[in-house]
Amino acid sequence: MAKRTLTGTTLDTIVSLAKRRGFVFQSSEIYGGLSSVWDYGPVGVELKRNVKDAWWKSMVRERDDVVGIDASILMHPDVWVASGHLDSFTDPLVECQECHRRFRQDQIEGDTCPDCGGAFGEPRQFNLMFKTFMGPVEDSSATVYLRPETAQAMFVNFENVQTSSRKKIPFGIAQIGKSFRNEITPGNFTFRTREFEQMEMEFFCEPGTDDEWHDYWMNFSMDWFKKFGIRGEKLMLRVHDADELPHYSKASADVEYEFPWGWGELETISNRTDFDLKAHAEKSGKDLSYFDDQKKERYVPFVVEPAMGADRSALAFLLDAYDEEGEGKDMRVVLRFHPDIAPFQVAVLPLSKKDTLSPTARRVYDLLLANFNAQYDDTQSIGRRYRRQDEIGTPLCVTVDFDTLDDDSVTIRNRDTMEQVRVPIDNLEAAIREQLNTMRADCQE
Ligand code: GAP
Fold first, then answer.
1. Which of 30, 295, 322, 357 is 20 to 30 A from 9, alpha carbon to alpha carbon?
2. pLDDT for the residue 19
3. pTM higher than 0.90, yes or no?
């Protein structure tokens, strides 16, 4: 299969398309917006849901060695003491003595403020965890934290999950959910925000097998992005240098994507060793070891963790799908999403809004709704509606015209080739499935 050549685009173009077409809006926009906080619109929410569903299916539903959980965002404050986040989840912060802007020290070049040239004060470590209070009293005994990673819930529930699911090591626990970090310098649209969603899996394995599992999950992660259509040349696996390893990790590697501003992390796959289980066992006083009844031995499992960002991945899918075809007034923008990632798989477009066509078009739409994520659109000219569906990446449009009333057939128009085929409504579902499968295959290299 030939490499897909897509034109790509700038971040500004994507931000404006995202707003125009209902992918992403700025939070609280009517009040001037809240900086670096974003809301997903009717199209974006489908995109992000598809990304999460694709991950959950590959990670949990299609495997018998991974189970899921959905834990609370708020956890016992001791969790963050034991995990090391209270002490170590910090970034170096410097403040300009002139304009008092604050920066992450490791993200600025030179020794002076990039805004006003002023000198910086002494750097200090800034903890990224958001604090709040539980209950009606706002004192230190009521302090709780918004989780900065979903992972800790998998460690503290290890025994509950293992005994209730009767899983034997090696096995994993997966979760998708919100995390919060009070980033000093968020930015690049939804890439770095203070509230975001993570898709994480903790894979518990026998000590000594951890390096092998680390390799396995690094390969799995790279293949996952490619399977759902991200081009291989836009992805790389970057192994962490020793001085950038998180405090819990013996080895980490990032899956990076080439964003318009350069390479950026989508996922980190870490070998967390037995750090977390041992730390929680010590702090809680509960034994979190595992008895291996085949080996007749007890050990604290090692953990390999693929940790992916849902928002960053959705942004990468959006950017990677962008293509411009043709020139001048004939230019069309197409998002060439993989059919499982595309917000909608099919759109039903009656040629005219007239009452004569609506009942048949509605019947076709109802038929498709049972099996596909479908949209109904009867506003504006058919040409404009095709362009709109191209811009949100809908793989197929089904047009209901006046001939449909006689021959009970409709036209399927393909997003990528723009070819149109006429099919009887009775065969429509099968014909759509076939075209979507071809498009899935086209996304592979
Ligand atoms: N449990 C390990 C962990 O949290 P991480 O590399 O800090 O590892 C995992 O985070 C993923 O979460 C990142 O690769 C990224 O995709 C996403 N992520 C982290 N911080 C983020 C932020 N401020 N905004 C958006 N996504 C973020």
1. 30
2. 97
3. yes
- Percent of the chain residues topping a pLDDT of 70: 99
CA distance 287 to 76: 18
Q: Is 266 in the pocket of ligand 1 (CB under 6 A)?
A: yes
Nearest CA to ligand 1 atom 4: 149
**Ligand 1 mean position to 311 CA, how many Å?**
10
Atom of ligand 1 nearest to the CA of 312: 16
CB 375 within 8 A of CB 431: no
Ligand 1, residues 196, 218, 255, 259: which to mutate, most atoms within 8 A of Cβ? 196
At what angle are helices 44-56 and 310-321 packed, to 10 degrees?
110
Q: How far is the CA of 279 from the centre of ligand 1 (A)?
A: 22
- Residue located nearest, by CA, to atom 20 of ligand 1: 192
* Tens of pLDDT, residues 47-98: 999 999 999 999 999 999 999 999 999 999 999 999 999 998 988 899 999 9
In sign, the C-alpha dihedral spanning 71, 76, 82, 85 is positive
